[in-house]
Automatic annotation (TrEMBL), chains A, B:
Originating species: Leuconostoc citreum
Domain of life: Bacteria
Keywords: DNA-binding, Repressor, Transcription, Transcription regulation
A GO MF term: DNA binding
Name of the protein in its database record: GntR family transcriptional regulator
Keyword Repressor tagged: yes
Keyword Ubl conjugation: no
Cross-referenced SMART domains: HTH_GNTR, UTRA
Amino acid sequence: MSLYQQVAKKLRQRIEAGNYQPGEALPRQAELALEFNTSRVTIQKALDILFNDNLIIRKQGSGTYVSPTYSSALDIISSQYGGTTQLFAGKATVSTQVLHFEIRLPTDEESQKLHIESTIPVYDIYRLRKLDNNPYELTKSIMPLSVISNLTKEVAERSIFAFIQHDLGLEIGNAVRRISADKTKNDDIQYLDCETHDPILQVSQTVSLKDGRIFEYAQTRHRYDKGSIVVFNKVPMV
Amino acid sequence: MSLYQQVAKKLRQRIEAGNYQPGEALPRQAELALEFNTSRVTIQKALDILFNDNLIIRKQGSGTYVSPTYSSALDIISSQYGGTTQLFAGKATVSTQVLHFEIRLPTDEESQKLHIESTIPVYDIYRLRKLDNNPYELTKSIMPLSVISNLTKEVAERSIFAFIQHDLGLEIGNAVRRISADKTKNDDIQYLDCETHDPILQVSQTVSLKDGRIFEYAQTRHRYDKGSIVVFNKVPMV
DNA sequence: TTATATAATTTGTCAATACAAATTATATAT
DNA sequence: ATATATAATTTGTATTGACAAATTATATAA
């Protein structure tokens, strides 16, 4: 890990430990540079990370302060893509039922969303995920074989996310999600145990690798009483 | 505007204009530094911005590339906080009906969400927003008088966001939002013209200023057929 | 005392340079 | 021709130094 990342990590720990209290000023950059035996520019790069995570407020001419509203923003993590299995690791038991597993050619919409030629086959996977044996989400994933390969029904029953990272050695990148509400459909009643008029929280997402290739276009339906999505909106850098 | 911001702006324009095609490599940093008559570090700071906006992919040892999936990410903007009035400026006519306007003491939940003492009064504003005369959203906003002052019903009928920025001269910062689905309630039927069993897309948000003070805790309810929320999830910097 | 101007402090920006790390191109050996 | 080792290229990290911009503290004047 590079130096500025190490410094960011250390400072983050201090904030989380309460060494620097919310609203309080951090030591000035020159002092931090001295303490970490590095240059001020490196301290600034470290502060960039903490600022990006909303841990600090920067005021030119004044100082760097711990966000007055800081209170260990743990649930923010839920807005990061790590797949359902990762998200609930240690918190609940995730079980998966593969309702459909197929390799076929993409529809026009799918090839467009995935940015692939219509001649490239895709995985079409339909899964029901349960948390501690309670129906949680219903997901239809489309993944192009040009990016993801050697996927099996057995893998789909475990964690596709882990497979992509560890077995294929690919790095997950950014994701764009569209969140909406919808009426209950037949599958929601059958698999999610919804009542006829229960609302559904629907997420349509495209997830990319770090090299920019899209590896998943998925639609997920949540029971309205089971899930909410936390998002963090930052002000633009320009 | 600082130099690296100007460079970022220029490069963004080129990408948006298609001068650099998706998937294509940008000129190498040394070349850009030469062209803009600046140093490579400045070019890197400019690239930081474009990377943050998902316009480019960076590969150490290889080069900097336009995101292969780039296609003018305009709707991403909808995930930024600019208030409803700003969001639809030029696209639709926003009209506002103030259903309730009151100054009172906060509830425990409100003082906690706003990070204020329970002795500090708050505005309690309940508004119906319409787009081109069609019911769009129903919002209950709580704002502390310690941050926002001189707010009137007349202001609430126009744009509170503009008032905060221009009249109070405050800078809007980050926002945390929790998105969920809910069943229709009486007010939804009355004001949003919902049917009894229509789902509602609900957003609970706390919005901060750049100095970290929270100025709004609000609950917004959308007709399920009128709005969806686009969010962009980035991989952490560490 | 109060307002105003000045100085000091602190963060932000930028340059020039050097080396590290990863990738890509080239040369070499088999 | 193919695989391997080497060199060249390109981005990433880091230092030092300098000045700009914003805020805060101090000194001065009324």
